Amino acid sequence: MAAAHEHLADSADEAPIPFRQAVEALRAARLRPEIEIDPTPAPKRLAPFAYALEAAVVERGAGPDGEDRDLADGRLVVLHNPAGDDTWQGTFRVVTLARAELEPEMGSDPLLPEVSWSWLTGALEARGVHYGAPSGTVTRAGSYYFGGLAAREPATQIEIRASWTPAEGPGGVPDLAAHLAAWCDLLCQVAGLPPANPDLPPRGGVVPLPQRRGAQPR
């Protein structure tokens, strides 16, 4: 995909220069070809200024009828409060969601929450991203089908919600392109894709879980 998205949110034109420059960095980000990303309405009550993207990891033509399949999806929101926020410990905050369907045996792995969180921190580390005040949750849920849906295999979903404060660079502008790339690396990880650079060793001694089963057709 040539760029993260084609246009800025209307409100960004009236925003402070650091926020506008940070959003422009998202616009210029170049990502893996498996990633589809588009702007989406941002929450209006979390900060004076906000911008949001939604993304999906897409397997081309992998469905039974040749249709594309979403292997993972999520949302990234950038919040900005020029006055700063004591909870954030900064003026920017990145809030993310990543989710995917896993093999049932993966969902039962007792180390899944810790490993999944390490995928996020490892992705940020691998991109050389500087950040602070991280927080989040890892949720797994199982689905079992009955009656008219009994033919479906059990499914396990994982959902990673996280937020962190990006370090600000010159002019108070964080390198959000690197944060976006790291988050997309996390999406690809939960989708079961091999790393973009397979020559790099796993970060922090974390061993990836087995590759997940393909998701339902789009």
**Separation, N- and C-terminal Cα atoms:** 19 Å
Q: In one word, what is the shape?
A: elongated
N-to-C SSE string, H for helix and E for strand: HEEEEHHEEH
Number of domains: 1
- The average pLDDT value, as a whole number, equals 81
Strand order across the largest sheet = 1-2-3-4-6-5
Report a brief summary of the structure.
By secondary structure, the protein is of the alpha+beta class.
How is this fold's topology laid out?
Blueprint: H1 17-28, E1 35-40, E2 49-59, E3 69-85, E4 90-102, H2 104-107, H3 112-126, E5 131-143, E6 155-166, H4 176-191
Antiparallel strand pairs: 1-2, 2-3, 3-4, 4-6, 5-6
Question: Care to describe what's here?
Answer:
There is one protein chain. Helix content is about 20%, strand content about 35%. The chain has about 220 residues and is an alpha+beta fold. It has one domain (about 10-190). The chain has a six-stranded antiparallel sheet. The longest helix is centred in the C-terminal third of the chain and has 16 residues, at about 175-190. It is elongated, with a radius of gyration of 18 Å. The relative contact order is 0.20. Residues about 1-10, about 200-205 and about 210-218 have low confidence and may be disordered. It holds the Pfam family DUF3000. This is DUF3000 domain-containing protein.
